[in-house]
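Worked problem 6 (solution included).
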Amino acid sequence: MSVTDSVAPVLFLEVIVLSEHVLFSEFAERWTTQVAPLRLKQTAVNEYSSLLRLHLLPVFGNRPIAGISAQEIQGYMADKVKSGYAPRSIRNHLAVLRAVLKSATQFDLVDANAAMKVTAPRHFRHEQRFPTPAEMKAILDACPRAWALALALPIYSASRKGESLALRWSSVSIENRQIAFVRSMRGGVEYTVKSSASRASLAMAEELVPLFLERREHAPDAIDGYVFCDKSGAPLGDGVPNRVLRRACQKAGVEHFTYHQLRHGSIAALIASGAHPLVVSRFARHASVATTLDEYGHIMSPLAGGDAIADLSRVIAQSGE
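Solution. The predicted structure is:
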């Protein structure tokens, strides 16, 4: 039994009577404040709470939690599909329901997790267009110098938006040409990045050096402060990088790309240069090469090209001689 499993029931027994008449809204409120924080990062707790408040509670809130059926949940998802919600979004709703009802089964409020019996809408991955090297250069040229580093980071180091926002000067070594991405930020909440592969140091591209130097000159705290911050040293909001990018795209005359698409464009450019998948994986800070191949395999040259296949055929043919 984990610490979470042993502590959470005690907390619930103090505040709620285990009964078949407990409403979904009552249980969900206790779950988000007393169980979810023990199991999830704060950013995930915030997202789950938001999905409950905006979508699930208006539908299931006044229903006894023991009375929610798989058929009702399936109908809820069908309604969301008809309303135009993306399959991925609806699957997120289902994930929240499954988590809440899983705890309800552990506390004997329901006999089974009804959310586990439904069919989730299928998510079809659409191939997205990455910015080309020429487009990324045009975006950087169009960006005001003061903000150039914010857009250069995903282009030259494949940084994620949260990693850029959480980057501190203590993780940047201009002299050694190293950048360590160890933290991320979302909604003003800073946290350690999800995997050991993501918590990695990268070689700093020479194009980034003057941009870091210029930004450091005006930093409120160039020792352990945020690289991107306001005059008081507080971190920037989530929407700032994309607003800067939107203006740069407009000025450059290219289609609007998101911050994450700049990261994709950077990785795609490295692949186009002929880099080995392992090198690409480390640059992207993926958990494994398998992740890299899954995400970008369609734009990679076949690992077993025509020459390799021809060599294999020749070896086999000659083996019988």
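Discussion: Residues 1-15 have pLDDT under 50 and may be disordered.
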